[in-house]
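Lay summary. Proteins are chains of building blocks that fold into shapes, and those shapes determine what they do. In this project we predict the shape from the chain. Here is one chain we studied, written as its sequence of building blocks.
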Amino acid sequence: MPRRRPGHVRAELPPRRRTSQQRTVDGPSGLSRAALAEILHIERTRNYLWAGGTAEALRRWRTFVREPGHRLWDERTNGGCLIWACCGDPFEAREFLESVMRALSRRSARELRALVEPLDDLY
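And here is the predicted shape, written in a compact code that computers can read:
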């Protein structure tokens, strides 16, 4: 039996939908792709960070600072289990962001700091 040419085999296949080659990186919006990739790498390699923790910490700090009664936070009444990822201690989230900024390169840390500093000024 003769061999079929690869072009003929591919021509008989159903057309493939082209998907985006861009990999989605779960991280804070407003950062460059390089900074997001570095955050993803650091979250995977450091034992005190976890995947998606930076985006969650930034979201938690942003919502805390923007709510009207943010200065009335009392961890005894608002805390719960005292784990910020679970019950939402915003000061732990801010410390988490600081640890990420210290682990990043200067350029990426500057980008993340540009998102965090306006929130710090509001607080």
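What the prediction tells us: Residues 97 and 103 are 10 Å apart (CA to CA).
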